[in-house]
Amino acid sequence: MPLPPSPLVNIDNIESLGLTLPEFERIQHLLGRNPNWTELGIFSVMWSEHCSYKSSKVHLKNLPTEGPRVVQGPGENAGVVDIGDGKVAVFKIESHNHPSFVEPFQGAATGVGGILRDIFTMGARPIALLNSLRFGDPEEPRTRYLLRGVVNGISSYGNCVGVPNVGGEINFDFCYDNNNLVNVFCLGVADKDRIFLGNASGVGNSVLYVGSKTGRDGIHGASLLASSEFDETTEAKRPTVQVGDPFTEKLLIEACLEAMEHDWIVGIQDMGAAGLTSSSFEMADRSGTGVELDLSKVPMRETGMTPFEILLSESQERMLFVIEKGHEEEAKKIFEKWDLDAVVIGQVTDTGVMRMTMEGEEVVNLPIHAVVESAPQLVRPTKKPNYIEAVDTLNLNIIPDLERGEGILKLLLKSLNIADKSWAYKQYDHMVGINTLVMPGSDAAVIRVKETNKALAISVDCNSRYCHLNPFRGAQIAVAECFRNIACSGGVPIGLTNCLNFGNPEKPEIMWQFEQAVLGIGNVCNYFSVPVVSGNVSLYNETKGKSIYPTPVVAAVGLLEDQTKHCTQWFKNPGDHIALLGLTLEEIGGTDYLENYLDLCQGSVPALDIKYERMLHQLCVELIQNDLIQSAHDCSEGGLAVAIAESCFSGPNQTLGATIELKSSIRNDALMFGESQSRIVISYSPDKKEVIEERVNNAGIDFSSLGIVGGNDLTVQLNDKEFIKEKISTLEEAWREPLKRYGG
Amino acid sequence: MKCGIVVFPGSNCDRDSFHILKEILGLETEWIWHKENSLKKFDLIVLPGGFSYGDYLRPGAIAKFSPIMKSIMEYAENGGKLLGICNGFQILLECGLLPGVLMRNISHAFICDTVPVRLENDQTPFTSNSSKGSVLKLPIAHADGRYFADENTLKELEDNDQVVLRYCDSSGMVASENNPNGSLTNIAGIVNKSKTICGMMPHPERQADPAWPNVDGQVIFRSLIQSS
Amino acid sequence: MLAKIHVTLKDGVLDTQGKAVHHALNDLGYEEVQGVNLGKYVEVQLDGLSQAEAEDRVREMCQKLLANPVIESYRFTLDSQE
Fold it and tell me: What is the pTM of this model?
């Protein structure tokens, strides 16, 4: 049957595929001829922002990516870090922002599916998921619909595949109206000597297609949706969003891990964004080989699909393998056992050329290296936005200090950004796999590594208000807070992955934010000697010219050499002492207090002393490892008062009161609700007091005794005057109810 | 005691049950693949939790027709001990080995939590290592866990002492406020008339590893060891 | 031949999803809505069967797999296709 005629290649069509005229001329120059329609489709996805990182690459070079533990840095499906005992941690974070806005349930579900595949293609069993979600103004009717759809999508996919979803963040801000963010992180563990990469080496080896059939869903989906701004037509793009099948994904996980026990697997890559195109081109390019594919052999769900559609389809739950010649039947047998399609669709060649045929007719003939590596690298102009100067000032004299604190404390606990998130994480199976030592609801989740005594602590963080006010310091703080959360759980960070969500890179102000944020991340990672081993860039998070706040989300993995030495954030025993490690400065700029109380997003972002921050983390881990403290809680959004209140009631088993007495010369609001960095609230048995104070002293960290755990109230005396007195059950209810009521 | 764990496509608590039986309790334990047509000799067979066949159509509805289920039905009819956890419970109901049905939670949402359950009958091989009225804290993780049966079936269950676990508060009081999913009379687990087949929504295998302070789930497995 | 099968909850079994949709419709101002039942709709393509055979086979499929007789009832129609 002859193929249907392709559209002619002309200027209008070029733009409909998202390519620019200079890019088209570059293609003509590279090929020495005009590409055909299918070939043009290949260029359009491979050179899209999503696949080529054309705007961001020049800045990402500033991130540290090497270190003694790094087994695999950026550029593969996921990063790999050595954790000792012959094991490695494999992890990555990725965005699924645009698909989740168009169709929240499927967008979020397929986001989970995609990140899982990135992990198990490396040979690792996925053992934990985190997610970082950002939505617009909760008063907007669509926000609730998006929240419910996204949480439901994550829950339905993650629960079915049986990978625990152990935490994350949910944040609301009007800047995410029409541009919600769904960033999903996955952690896997593998044997160090059984890591698989996306290689297509060995002339004559077979290219094996495995998994779901290819349909027309998602053609030009992630790659194109993520490479332009949103407008009124976005809704009409709904049919391009893919549908996830977690059941098939579960079979794929088990079948791939079973196949990987054999030595005949040469390489493997997920057919994710840009589907069969990116997987085949990237694998061949890494090995410097060529590939011949017969597209007629690709399992198809619909009849009459064109080469263009087959190559650009983003149907989910598909993998591309390269198998040593002669082992095809063995491979197929394993996939058949799991009821999965597995078909040899081509061979590796030594030509450096991608040659594809369909029904015997040549449809693609392209030099692989030129397609993968010749994507334009842009050095886009940067310009410091005008608003920065204006928001950086805050005149404290016009803000009267607080006489009493109960009202503000309740206001903050009730705000959706601080309120309890269990409405969401109780819909996620966070225990399957029986590794979750610290469940969601503490600063970081702690996951044990079976067959070792070790555990891994994971946390995902970003305060985008800080990043809006000061992208460099905001990004620094995102990393510092992430590491602090890990320290509060007893871990030492060993690797980081980032998901950089920004607006339209064609605007110099956005590129300036991007550049500053990357420098901020690099600065803290360098100082802590933590490599960035994987990541994702999501640009064009902008609708009708309105951009999101810069949102560089970071997720880190920390190592606990002894899994029994982990810590949680909540108070354990009445009578225990409470203390603050770190120093509170008179800083209220950019706080949740200002935002919620005075509706102000203004002022200097809290200062960060990275040397002090690292000393604090070392001290905290030392205290945990020596069984000296009962709890450790990062003091961040909402300040000291919120950190103490959360320590009282966020535990799973009991609610405890606390009596606090403080003396200080700074303003009451800054003391209780300011967000000075590098602070941790700890509790400990009174008999440990002396040894703790000695260690704190040796570490050079500031220490203030705060009070005692117990009773039915939270009372705070500031400079001998009562500042807060409230039933702890009232505060707990204020914190527990809002998201449940909003989401439910 | 020799244990077998059935692996359906989509089972995802199979490895957890295996870990507890084999690594923690040191029992001889083997996998049983759903496509097998015959069974070796086992003293206990576990139908694990998960989403067999994606829970498509209804949880457990398609697993019922797996090749291995014919041998499992025979094993059960001959008095073999069979434990269905979560999705395994759903499969036992679809097969008719236990009466009733598990419907969508009253909240419509998936619930993952650790909840107290009261042990209602200590005269079964699944519960004999504890005593009637004791309260266990066990994890639940399901979207379809609302037990339902018609009046006659329910009366029969009660008359024969077939209810083994009920959702309760931490003191053991059974009331609608501590019913997480809307189950009829707070039912969390039941046995058949001859007390050889047990289905429960809570996951005892998730609370049986001493890496966590609470090992309440061991009660179920220790009872089985004791009675074998 | 195309079998169009409707599976619904039996009378008297609490239809929580139907109840939720009912509330939602009322909230949207459709006060005339007096009841909502949610069920499943299944299409099965059949080949080489007479009308009477098809009826028997489809009934069997419903009883065996497509409906849970404890809580669900079913009804179906058979359309002959060109």
Answer: 0.94
